[in-house]
Structure formats: structure tokens, C-alpha cells
Amino acid sequence: MRQLSMADIVSNQEYEAMRPAFRQRVINLKKLRRLAIGPRISLVFENTETMRFQVQEMMRIEHIEDVEKIREEIEVYNDLLPSGLAIGATLLIELSQTDDMPAILRQLSGVEEHVMLEIESQQIHALAEAGRSTEEKTSSVHYLTFPFTESDRILLMEHPESVALRIDHPGYRYQTKIPAETVSLLIGDLLASRE
Q: At 127, which helix (H) or strand (E)?
């Protein structure tokens, strides 16, 4: 997947002018890239545009104008965009104010180690960013990478109707089929990573 560069980023003033249309475009894109896996967890398959939005929003909120600080933000978000034959995703544990947050985060400790894509009978286990869980609790946000082999990519292209996301954690076992439109976007991401 193509990494972000300074050329992708506009000034806060330019961004403010384009923000309503860009924000709506990214919201629509994320609708296609976001999937619920059971009642508490959703996953967003990220790409260059979703990360560009994150950088621009961070610059806007934090009033970042310094070129070096912008480069640092780009670097942080590029770390979430896998290079090579891989797909990046953000896993979100969804909690409401009425939930017993500490108890739920304890129950889901290590959940990020139990996420996989299934294509036919092939499983692609997610690799999680280190340091976001302990034995006592987990973070409500995790950054995942699904590393593909060339044969995994071919299998995805040959069987787009047989792709699912699965979590097989002792305290949370759910699976959801990935819609064809989302699979098509993921195939595009993988093809772009080969260029």
C-alpha cells in the first residue's frame, strides 16, 4: 500500500476549505471498510486516504503547521499502513457509558491476538501492534496487519464470495462475512501494494 508523503498533505487553511467534501468522502469510504464482528467489536480496513484524513484532522485539531511536526505525524500514521503484501486495519472495542468498561476490557484482554481473515479454509492471522494489552486488560483500539502471501492474494481474488473475519478469543467468538464490495477494495489495496 502506498505510504503517505508530504505531497499528500495540505495546509490547515487549504484543508479547512476542502474539509466538508473530503470528510464526507472518507466517511463514505469507511462505511465500506468498516465491519462489525459481534456486538462489541468493529474493524476498519485502512488505506492511504483514511490515514491522510487522520493526519489532516490531527493537524487541524492540534493546530500543527511546523513541517517537522507534520512529518512526525505522517510517520506515525504510515506505521499503521503496512508495506508489501499486507492489509492494515484498526480494531475498535465499542463501549458505551453504561458499560462496565474495566470489566469488559479485562474480559477481552488479548483479543487482538485472536483475529483472522478466512478465505475458503485458509486463515490469515492478524499481527497486532505490541504493547496495547496486558494480562489484566486490553486497549479499546488496536492496530492490526494481515500479512498475505502471493497464494493468499490469488485465493482472495479467486474466492471473493468466501471471505470472513473471525475472532476466536475465549471470551469473544464471532465471525462475519465480508461483503463483496469490501473484498473488492481489499483486492485493490493488495494490488496497489505490488506496484
A: strand 127-128
